[in-house]
Design goal:
eight-stranded mixed sheet; elongated; Beta-prop_WDR11_2nd; WD40
Length: 1314
């Protein structure tokens, strides 16, 4: 994150080339495990009052977003704004260039909720809050209860809505564009725990409570009032967890539902979590502390309940694998349990337990795992790698037919690669990779469709290995102190010699856990951490630039009491910790502070009510003297400040001579020098001095020369510094100035060479710390100081100005931030460089604040500015963070096909990268057209645009921040696998998973469409007679049981592609798999739904048996008997058929169980039955019934109507497109893309269909009817009769206009590399 410049004469403005401003403190239980991974792979999690955004692939910090304080913070001072929920928007990269810069439609929006009940919508690109959502904002009562945020979830209706849990039991739906609350639901006395969105229907979401209450809701058209459909359910099978919750409620003093804190604050160690299965629709996976439950939303019942395994800690969270039927559960003790679904059931069995916190190299006690997330973007890229690089993906498309594969004994091995990211409370982010040797998948036989239609299942004995791929180390614990190195010219290197030690861009931080974190400000990261003390570090100082001295103390509880003081010197180069001043017995007084000289040669140890000790910090530290004076403050002199150039250097030389001549005598307290000196130590000619103040207000300066301490007699101030005004509490000393602050807020400064002095009152509380800013040659002021007050605020004053108080800079950068410690960063070497102030906040964050002070006397012309560039160990390859125009340019280039050699930065990398293309070496560096892959596809859009876009992306290519090596290799492996593969890759890179799945399924959909066209002649055959229908029905019934098991293991499709299912065997196989899950369910409603499933798959024999099992006293006995007779009897004549249709229509009108559709099935009216099911909203059941009984155009009509519903109601354009293609409605698909304002996708869709259809038709031995726009000479060949030449021309022209507009926007945008 970039820092804001700070000037007294200009408003704060954010600079893209300024310093990074924030390192967050570690997360805690108070953050509620808030973490989320965006579709593009960005990780965001709550840490204190900040949101940390990181890149899990490169393990680098992207930025930190601090939550500002609430306007009502004074009334609720006890509520710190802890971040308790974060959620990325599912919004994809906007292709509508007319409103691409609107923050309200940005794909980088992040919703953040805090403990004060506020929700902030952040725009990651601008690092600004674009909208506030607050239920309490309109309340006029200052004592109104603030409902903290428990969880957040984005919902898609007509627009993107945000569902939020406020407090313990309030569910609200917000309009993310206007900030208006659309709908509320009070679930009292429940404790709502989490909320999740359905991956199959983005309007649908579920909310779970700690007591097992489940609320299923669907936002119907904006969410106003009654436009939210609700279903209240209760989870069964959580007996043990219910007992634990009752105990916690009794123990908690605020256990009533009327209290304002959310569940995470009331019961921080009691977790109830749910997630939707990404493979099976209507299936919820739920964990309570001691149970793992599978719940069926369609049946409203629990399918299975698994107890907590013996030896495992309580459940904390769960995640489904996006591809395999695996479930990952996180436990409170930091372990990860892996569960596999038992084949044929919705029951999960434990197949492995892994450690998320290695026992080697971790602190004691072991840090706790707070959150874990899976990277869906990695899974989508793995999908592309799996399906596009497999030879059968392209070979199967060239076959004559695409038929369901036969069973085969041949198997091919597919590796399991799942990326998980865990977050621990010691400030570390862990990147894990789960792998297995192989996953069995039936291999395709010759002439079969691509492998996406076959299952992937784990072997029962398959071992799963977890590997740590990377770690990002941020601040490890609560900060207690801060130290910045400021070595003078007398500081020498630790290796010895008299070479001066240069300033280093390092900051040392002491923590509550006893560790020292070393922060490299140029990289904005913790470079190393030392575990030094067992207690909190109370003080920390640099000794030069490579050693640190720190102290801690602990109180002795034994007889006699006292304190155990511990002093340690830490060497940064060797990592060794060497304690000194070791005592056998406890001391009477604890150490109060440490003061190290700027050279690092001397150290003052201040005790509470005990003499001050002076130490020489040699290899083996030696105590020089003990000063028994009542000191209040002591400060060493800083390196001398150079005089302004116009004043010359003579005054500085004379001043130093005067200091040397005046150092002749000593006070009575120091009348005798130390006699216990070592003769082996050489005499040191360099002297250093420190200033002090006594309890009675007396001031003084001592000089340490070698081993002697003597009084330095300065020129006393002309005015008296009496102590009646207040005790001196802070001091800073840089020759020739001594600055002092007292507990009344007065600041005095005194020139020790001239005796001049002055003072003013800050009108603030007492002063705790004063720090001189670093001065370089050419500076106009040498008296700029930072002052820290006892109220944890700070200000900056310029003592060289005529009125320091009037020109003071207060604290505008971090409002509401309490400051524990501050110091200046000392690596400034030019006067044009900004001053940087280091601040350790009370929220355990480290902030760097840039201070630019513009002098009115300076020249009005522009000054060259020396910038400190941020260092990254590897480039941050996140195209999603590019300016929107540049991101769209990269997406276009990847779609059109750029040669992999374009990503090569120099010739050195081409030797190790296998995707180097030699022919591009001979091309001119300015001839960028040679980098584009030559294509035989019809031209679409403007042919000049790709070269212009490559020029725009050239700065990113030179920086190497477009794609990392792994993804470049993946792109190189599929660049020549066809346009659909490139389109899927481009979509996955930008986190558009649904679009990537669409491109992967497009060849299969076109294959299915051509198969229907080839069998069109069979549709004209008259319907079989009744006797033939009877024979077919009996054959189907007899063979159903035999084939059910085979289809379950072969036709079911796993992974994210499952929601794109359209083939008859896939839909029928999915439905057949579900039947076995519900075999043991009883009750009238469950029986009705089971009968419906059996009729849908054509298993009439089992349906009749189930209907006849209805007891006579049941309310459904007569309807069930009627259906049983109709289904088991032979098909009657036309009069009987008409009567059944009338009865069915009446039953549909009055019976919610849709019994009439079963009667229609009994008389063979499957098309009408599907229409009635679709009218009733049973779209999946209608598709299953059609897949079982309908063929050709009848089946296509069902798919096309389903696609219309998915597009208009569920707002899932990619799933609708694949259904349109499977139904042969390419014109409707193009219309949907045009209405969605995606001209690039429409053009790429035409190219992909042309390429796939051309490949299939060129290799086919039988002619297939096709439409080539208007005649055979047209460039596009598309398998549809509904497309006109004007439609194709309009798509191309629209795409060309889009390209030209994009080029103009790219030229106007400035490249951004971070």
């Amino acid at each position: 994150m970039k820092m804001a410049s700070w000037s007294p004469s200009a408003p704060a403005a954010r600079s893209q080339d300024a310093w990074d401003c924030l390192l967050p403190g570690p997360p805690s239980r108070s953050n509620g495990g808030s973490a989320d991974c965006s579709p593009a792979g960005l990780l965001a999690y709550g840490a204190g009052s900040c949101v940390v955004v990181a890149d899990p692939r490169s393990m680098q910090l992207v930025c930190v977003l601090p939550m500002p304080p609430s306007a009502a913070a004074s009334a609720h001072a006890s509520l710190a704004p802890f971040v308790t929920a974060v959620r990325w928007t599912p919004q994809s990269l906007l292709r509508d260039l007319s409103s691409y810069d609107d923050p309200s439609t940005s794909h980088l929006r992040l919703a953040v909720g805090d403990r004060q009940g506020r929700i902030a919508i952040w725009d990651l690109r601008s690092r600004q809050i674009i909208l506030w959502l607050d239920l309490d904002a309109a309340s006029s009562s200052a004592t109104s209860t603030r409902l903290g945020i428990q969880d957040l979830c984005w919902i898609r209706s007509d627009s993107w809505l945000l569902a939020a849990i406020h407090g313990p039991s309030l569910l609200a739906l917000w309009d993310a564009a206007s900030g208006r609350c659309l709908w509320k639901y009070d679930a009292s006395p429940e404790y709502l725990s989490c909320i999740r969105r359905d991956p199959f229907d983005s309007r649908h979401f579920c909310t779970l409570s700690l007591r097992g209450f489940l609320l299923s809701a669907i936002a119907l058209g904006g969410g106003d009032g009654g436009d939210v459909s609700l279903q209240e359910l209760r989870i069964a099978g959580m007996t043990d967890s219910s007992l634990d919750l009752q105990k916690l409620e009794k123990e908690s003093s605020s256990g009533s539902a009327s209290s304002s804190p959310p569940a995470l604050a009331l019961f921080p160690l009691f977790f109830a979590r749910l997630c939707f299965s990404p493979i099976w629709r209507h299936i919820l996976l739920i964990t309570f502390p001691k149970e793992l439950i599978v719940f069926d939303l369609h049946y409203g019942t629990t399918l299975s309940s698994s107890p907590l395994p013996r030896g495992c800690s309580k459940f904390m969270n769960l995640m489904p694998d996006p591809e395999l039927d695996l479930l990952y559960c996180v436990h409170l003790d930091g372990k990860l349990s892996i569960w596999k679904r038992k084949e044929g059931e919705q029951l999960h069995v434990l197949c492995g337990v892994e450690e998320l916190m290695p026992s080697i190299g971790t602190a004691i006690p072991t840090p706790a795992v707070l959150a874990i997330n899976s990277c869906q973007s990695e899974s989508s890229v793995q999908n592309i790698d799996l399906f596009c690089t497999d030879p059968s993906y392209t070979q199967a498309l060239l076959s004559e037919e695409c038929v369901p594969p036969k069973s085969s004994n041949k198997e091919m091995d597919i590796p399991l690669k799942t990326c998980l990211v865990s977050i621990s409370d010691d400030g570390k982010i862990w990147n894990w990779l789960l792998t297995s040797d192989k996953v069995k998948e039936p291999a395709p036989v010759n002439g079969s469709c691509p492998p996406s239609t076959k299952p992937r299942f784990m072997e029962p004995e398959l071992p799963i290995k977890i590997s740590l791929m990377g770690q990002l180390h941020l601040l490890s614990s609560t900060l207690t102190t801060l130290a910045v190195p400021s070595p003078s010219l007398t500081a020498t290197l630790a290796r010895g010699g008299n070479n001066p030690a240069p300033a280093v861009p390092l900051i040392a931080l002491g923590t509550q856990s006893g560790t020292i974190d070393i922060v490299d400000v140029s990289a904005s990261a913790v470079t190393v951490s030392f575990s030094v003390h067992s207690n909190a570090i109370r003080g920390l100082r640099w000794l030069g630039n490579s050693r640190l001295v720190s102290f801690s103390y602990g109180q002795v509880n034994e007889k006699g009491g006292g304190y155990t003081n511990k002093l340690v010197v830490t060497c940064l180069r060797s990592g060794l910790n060497r304690p000194f001043r070791l005592l056998q017995k406890p001391e009477r007084a604890p150490i109060r502070a440490l003061r190290a000289s700027s050279s690092g040669r001397y150290l003052l140890i201040l005790f509470r009510d005990a003499p001050v000790e002076v130490w020489a910090m040699t290899k083996n530290p030696i105590m020089l003297r003990s000063l028994a004076l009542p000191f209040t403050v002591l400060e060493w002199t800083l390196p001398s400040a150079p005089r302004p150039i116009q004043n010359g250097s003579s005054k500085e030389i004379s001043a130093s001579k005067e200091l040397t001549s005046n150092a002749n005598a000593s006070t009575n307290a120091l009348s005798t020098d130390a006699k216990t000196t070592s003769s082996e130590t050489p005499v040191d000619d360099v002297s250093e001095s420190f200033a002090f103040a006594l309890v009675n207000g007396a001031l003084g300066v001592f000089e340490v020369h070698g081993r002697r301490i003597r009084d330095f007699r300065p020129k006393w101030p002309s005015t008296s510094f009496a102590s009646s005004d207040g005790l001196i509490t802070a001091m800073a000393y840089r020759l020739p100035h001594v600055v002092m602050g007292d507990r009344l807020g007065n600041i005095r400064w005194w020139d020790v060479t001239t005796g001049l002095s002055s003072s003013f009152n800050t009108h603030r509380e007492g002063i705790r710390r004063i720090k001189f800013s670093p001065v370089v040659p050419g500076d106009n002021s040498r008296g700029r100081i930072a002052v820290l007050f006892y109220d944890n605020t700070f200000s900056i004053f310029d003592l060289d100005s005529s009125d320091p108080l009037a020109n003071a800079l207060l604290q505008p950068q971090s409002p509401g931030t309490l400051v524990l410690e501050l110091d200046w960063l000392t690596i400034r070497s030019d006067r044009n460089e900004p001053l940087v102030l280091c601040i350790a906040g009370a929220d355990s964050s480290l902030r760097l604040i840039e201070v630019n002070i513009h002098n009115a006397k300076s020249s009005s012309g522009t000054k060259s500015r020396v910038l400190k560039e941020r260092f990254r160990p590897i480039p941050l390859c996140l195209p999603i963070l590019f300016p929107t125009a540049h991101a769209l340019a990269l997406r276009t280039i990847l779609q059109l096909g750029v040669k992999p050699s374009w990503f090569n930065l120099n010739s050195a990398t081409t030797d190790i990268l296998p995707f180097h293309i030699p022919e591009t070496d001979t091309a001119s560096p300015r001839d960028l057209r040679s980098f584009m892959i030559e294509s035989v596809l019809p031209s679409v859009g403007d042919a000049v645009v790709p070269e212009l876009l490559l020029k725009v992306l050239e700065p990113y290519r030179k920086e190497g921040c477009i794609l990392d090596d792994e993804r470049v290799r993946l792109y190189a492996s599929l660049a020549n696998k066809g346009s659909a593969a490139r389109f899927a890759f481009a979509a996955a890179i930008f986190g558009e998973v649904s679009e990537a799945m669409f491109w992967l399924q497009l060849p299969h959909a076109l294959c299915h469409m051509l198969e229907r066209s080839a069998n069109k002649s069979q549709q004209g055959v008259p319907k079989p007679s009744i006797s033939e229908s009877e024979s077919a029905l009996l054959n189907r019934i007899a063979s159903r049981e035999k084939s059910a098991g085979m289809v379950t293991s072969e036709a079911v499709k796993y992974g994210q592609l499952n929601m794109m299912a359209f083939k008859q065997e896939d839909l029928w196989g999915n439905a057949n798999e579900r039947i076995s899950w519900h075999a043991k369910l009883d009750g009238e409603e469950a029986i009705q739904k089971r009968v419906h499933e059996l009729v849908s798959v054509g298993n009439l024999e089992a349906a009749v048996s189930l209907l006849l099992s209805t007891p006579p006293e049941g309310s459904q006995f007569y309807p069930n008997a009627l259906r049983a007779v109709a289904l088991s009897s032979a098909v009657s004549r036309s009069l009987h058929e008409l009567a059944v249709k009338v009865v069915a229509a009446n039953m549909v009108r009055t019976d919610k169980s849709l019994s009439g559709t079963h009667l229609l099935c009994a008389v063979g009216r499957y098309q009408e039955s599907c229409s009635q099911l679709q009218d009733a909203g049973c779209w999946t059941d209608a598709a299953t019934l059609a897949a079982t009984h309908l063929r050709g155009a009848d089946y296509s009509r069902v798919l096309q109507r389903w696609a219309d519903y998915v597009l208009r109601s569920e707002h899932n354009i990619w799933r609708a497109l694949i259904l349109y293609v499977a139904a042969g409605a390419l014109a409707e698909a193009l219309t949907a893309l045009r209405n969605a304002r995606q001209p690039d996708t429409a053009a790429m869709f035409m190219l992909a269909c042309h390429e796939i259809y051309t490949q299939i038709s060129s290799e086919s031995q039988t002619s297939v009817e096709a439409f080539a726009s208007a005649d055979e000479n047209q460039s596009f060949r598309l398998p549809s009769r509904n497309l006109e030449a004007e439609d194709l021309k309009a798509v191309s022209e629209f795409y060309g206009e889009y390209q030209r507009r994009l080029v103009h926007l790219c030229m106007d945008a400035t490249p951004s590399f971070d």
